């Protein structure tokens, strides 16, 4: 085979290092080990990147994809950091960044009839590693759809209250050991007017309607409820919670955000 | 200037004519003349296409963009068909197709306080023309967000009722003269539990909450209400109405569709 | 338990039947049996609907989700129609419609080095059934990303030729037995300037660059190539092929469509 | 009129202040004054937010929308900060945040024939203000589509080179006076293999094809070129540049990011 020029390895004279270079929008089937120790198959959208020192013209893009394939599909909150660590060696990098976002499912029983259905969530892993183990950052995000019922609308109206689907995007860093995805979802769902279900029979629908009416929350309440529960845990070193309400009375969203570093 | 090869005009021997060839995803600033005879500036996403007979290898893509630029930004429901007609000549085509989708705004006063705010909708023009005026099809679509409150949830529950934002996609063809975009939006909004507003003060919020509670509709009711009003008009020769509810109790949508040809 | 009102089953007096009513945007983990007889786990976005006669006020939305759960995750091109058939009975409907869209993966070896990587595609099943087996429609769609290199740019330029990623959306109905998803993908990929790969080492990149340069295609050529291959098969009773090029020299897309009924 | 309860103004006892609360996804027609002193009409997607001290239960969402309406549609890089400043007073806030994203158009002549066409870009304003003028942050982002041609593919291949549409997202903060949107776009376009055009006749297509072939850039080169030009200006105090290539040979993207604070 002829010798092919390795343009990427050429010297670069611009004296500008690159913070992050890699691939994005790669779809890859993965398996998540869940709290019940079961394996859940899903499909992730992945990005993989490393830093690039100023002296090199380019990185070797195919190695990112190879690293992902070699790691294989199995992933859990305890071992996820192995992927960015593999990148460090394979790309001769001093810092690496990996992001994986995927749908995550839980069997959830309807509140009165107990009928089971799968609820879907979005989960995101963001991981960074540095050579020499100087850094190992793991940020876990769950995107949890919920019901929110407006306290102001309830307080003013002779009957009824506007309510809607809201989306809570909840990200955490762990103080030490990771917390299960399922526990983060439970935490968020307990802070809304009511949680969502995929199957609801008539007695269940009555139950969720009344429960939401009894638990009105603004987006402000929702993020504060999540903040309080997070801060009362010792498991977290940082969190960010954003609630976004797809208002049933407007064509725009209401939103609120709290972010806190919990390291003293 | 050297003579450049015109690859598109070469003969094709595959004996397969092409139904539609052109450009898509082109953004273009337009001006819509509205019912109050005012000019509204907005931005359209445009596609332009013609048929291609089996004997030609390709069409001339730049001519589509030139035709759009030459037509200029002004558009209304009465003159829209001039764009596909211009394509016929410019591309030597026997059939042409143009689609334009854009945000459309209306000043709308809050129901009690009268505070004005702009409500945004999506409007789509789909137009077809044939050489020799054998065809001139104009399909007008309005996408109208509304409030829907669930009749079943209201009937069963001791208090409250789940409600949510729904999206109604309403398309019509006209029997003769076009109907104003604003009138189509009014028709749809009058069929929902309540319509949406961009500005609502507290007395307005009480009003929309109670109005929605007094007017519960399933997606089935919503499309039937729109269907009834459409059929009672003599203005339309065809319609399609789809309602999609972003259920506040589920993470999926409920939807319903009715489509009818009204030519006897 | 108290007797809860069944609002949906009430009589409706508007005399308007509904073409399609159901749920949309439901995410569900599925398993696809592929050509190699292996089971592939992925995640589908599902819609399920039935017609509704004019005499009923509403359908029972929870039954759609229950039908999907009861069917279970396993799906293949031969048995897919069982889902719409189950809906007919469960919803007492005369016509049902099911749509499932999901990422689909294939191991694909790089053309020179043979390195394997997973290529991702999008696959869509659209199925309709009618009571009494009067209808059983199955439309299979594969969305295949490819390389397209412009013949005109190549013919005119002293060196180089603009090329880009294109997306081919190819839908078929079968004359009798279904064709494997993999075979439809192969058919489309063979019609482009070159097919895509997830892993390419330097000798592979040289190969795909030169192959694309040797095989320039317009969007017009691409859809005609697919059309020719489809028509030379006896397996299909109908097809539609759309090619959309994300032009590297424009900020809009070029596109072309051919649709044909092949029943004589 | 009856006295309606003001739930938002009630006391909150959770002792958690909220970083940002407001509205999102609001569409609003705006007018941008451009470098040629012309007014360009377009449509923005807007978010408006303030901080909320721990002692208040909620903010007053309608005031955000009223503030936007009262400001009116006219916007330019010099006066944009007036919107967040208005929010401070109207919402009794100590900090406010406004984001506006909109399509932006420029007439651009084809390189050989001089034919004019409109090129579309995306522009984003992100603005923060603090009470007492302690802060006035303005971040301007332009999203510029370009052509990128791969240096490695060109170096290795006997003919041709893969190229594709890339997207450069370029954000800056100004050292003192703002720089025109048009100048930021020019800066980015000059760093790519070639810039894009909406209208290209055959001689123009030959020109852009050859120009791209003569100027191959990796995503790494593209962000470094933008970085160099930014750093050689005294106009900027901070920048971030991200390039994302929709690779014509892969179904994923290559990307690179550089971010620098330029205050010494």
TrEMBL record, chains A, B, C, D:
Lineage: Bacteria, Pseudomonadati, Verrucomicrobiota, Verrucomicrobiia, Verrucomicrobiales
Assigned EC number: 3.5.4.16
Major enzyme class: hydrolase
Name of protein: GTP cyclohydrolase FolE2
Matches recorded under InterPro entries: GTP_cyclohydrolase_FolE2, GTP_cyclohydrolase_FolE2/MptA
Family under the similarity heading: Belongs to the GTP cyclohydrolase IV family.
Tree of life domain: Bacteria
Reaction(s) catalysed (UniProt annotation): GTP + H2O = 7,8-dihydroneopterin 3'-triphosphate + formate + H(+)
Pathway: Cofactor biosynthesis; 7,8-dihydroneopterin triphosphate biosynthesis; 7,8-dihydroneopterin triphosphate from GTP: step 1/1
Swiss-Prot/TrEMBL site (May be catalytically important) positions: 150
Described function: Converts GTP to 7,8-dihydroneopterin triphosphate.
Keyword annotations: Hydrolase
């Amino acid at each position: 085979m002829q010798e092919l020029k390795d343009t990427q390895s050429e010297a670069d004279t611009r004296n500008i290092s690159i913070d992050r270079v890699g691939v994005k929008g790669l779809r890859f089937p993965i398996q998540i080990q869940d709290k019940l120790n079961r394996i859940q198959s899903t499909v992730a959208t992945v990005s993989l990147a490393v830093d690039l020192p100023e002296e090199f013209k380019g990185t070797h893009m195919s190695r990112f994809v190879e690293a992902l394939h070699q790691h294989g599909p199995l992933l859990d909150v305890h071992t996820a950091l192995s992927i960015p660590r593999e990148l460090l060696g394979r790309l001769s990098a001093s810092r690496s960044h990996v992001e994986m976002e995927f749908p995550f499912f839980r069997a959830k029983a309807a509140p009165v009839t107990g009928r089971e259905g799968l609820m879907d969530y979005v989960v995101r892993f963001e991981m960074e590693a540095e050579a020499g183990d100087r850094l190992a950052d793991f940020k876990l995000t769950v995107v949890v759809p919920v019901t929110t019922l407006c306290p102001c609308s309830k307080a003013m109206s002779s009957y009824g209250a506007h309510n809607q689907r809201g989306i809570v995007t909840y990200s955490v860093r762990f103080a030490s050991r990771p917390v299960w995805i399922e526990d983060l979802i439970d935490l968020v769902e307990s802070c809304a007017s009511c949680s969502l279900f995929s199957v609801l029979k008539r007695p269940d629908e009555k139950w969720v309607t009344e429960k939401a009416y009894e638990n009105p929350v603004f987006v402000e309440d929702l993020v504060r409820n999540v903040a309080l529960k997070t801060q009362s845990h010792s498991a977290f070193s940082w969190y960010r919670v954003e609630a976004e309400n797809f208002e049933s009375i407007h064509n725009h969203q209401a939103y609120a955000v709290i972010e806190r570093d919990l390291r003293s």
